[in-house]
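Notes from the pairing session

We agreed to fold both candidates in a single pass and log them together. This is the raw record for the first candidate, unedited. Please don't reformat it; downstream parsing expects exactly this layout.

Candidate A
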Amino acid sequence: MKKLLSVAPANARASWVVEPNNFSKLVRLYRERGLSADTERRELTGVLAFVGARFGDEARKALRKAVRLRSSGRRGWRTRWLSGNEIARIRESSGDWWIVVGTAVATGLRAGELLSLRVRDLDFEAGTLVVQAGKSVKARRVLPLGGEILGMLRGWVAAHDLEPGDRLFEVTKRQLRRAWERIREDAGLHDVRFHDLRHTYAVWCAKSGMPLVELQQRLGHATITMTQRYAVYAPPTASVHYDAALKQMGLGGDEAPDVPTVVPTPRPGEEAAPEPEGPEAASRQSGGAGIRTLKPVRAPHFEGTSPDATGTEKSRRKPTVPRLSAKRSPTVTDS
């Protein structure tokens, strides 16, 4: 919102933006800067929300009709993640900034969460990291720390003699943005944003087989729908779970059991059926139950019907339709 209002006249007040003509002029000057459609939509949405809260919903609707928001042309979410080779290139070009960039890759924190960390949020004995300043209530979470990142952070705190209440990284968002632009240019990855480090963490966790519910908790997503975008990277473990379920039910043997041969038993007073010959005998010798031929059963014949070519009964009589009586209903007269 500040970017959009920065192109307004110096003496313009909030009431100046409410006029549809002034708002259209403001948007036209803003678009001349060549910013992306996503940035424009975000800024305009913020201004419209401010106008609706300050001057009412009618003023917001009037400004909304005066300007048509551009579409970004994207379908769905953008998921750009780094491969192992690309992570090595980022690490090489980061230099002293790798302590910040590496922590973002190893934890999947947002930029705001990363820069809001305090030394007291780290527990080196348990190897955990507590995220206090989350995007929402569910974004407050405890993350495990391991590998070389845990040792790097321990050395970082000791080298700078940081107190528990001190910020872990004395870096502003502007400094981080400028440093990241230089790092990705040196690495030759011009399309990678700093937020894509969070996607990298999520994709590699999903590829390792981490359940989506656990990944949701680690990312601090409010709903599982936001985490399902990474389900396409998960390995096909359904067959493994199915085999484990069969073993728990006692059906996980590799060898098939012997199939019992069913021998029909004659009823009392009936003689046993003669031994079959031909294909039926071969089937009986191979362990099968044999082939039993069923004779077609003719449908019963009822009076007034005749069987058609297919053997089904077809009625000769025409269906009768009830007719209404032509007599008038008696009228009731006053006596």
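Candidate B (folded immediately after A)
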Amino acid sequence: ALPPAAAATLPRSPAPAPAAPARPASIEAEPVAVAEIEGRGELPLSSAAPTIVPPGATFRVSAPGACADARVTLLDAADAVLPGTASRELGATTRLALGPAAPLPPGAHLRLRLDGATSAALHDAAGGSLAPREWPLVVSGDPPLAHRPPHRGRR
């Protein structure tokens, strides 16, 4: 053992740094989206490439966990929200449904978006978060011809 005077002169180990606050975990499982097509069943949607859907399609998304702040929207090419009726069921998974208010315009390029209603990310009851997800869509059919004014040139 060291004499008391020698022990007082030895360098002390620095105190441990306070632990960083625990960050909520990310939600690990990916959400699943489908288009419901009357008379033909469900069509899985891909986030990697556009899915062709008919004008009368409705949509469902299942997200892991009970995500009370989850919402699903349908956006056009200009990021405008298309009107529709949405519903949400919470349980072991969150189920969201979206029915457009009118048939989707043929030829339109749209995106089905899952995000949080109060922030970009959605959150489950355990504090986990999930960044927004999108599924690109193309509505089947030819887009309407643009209105052209009558020709006013020489004949």
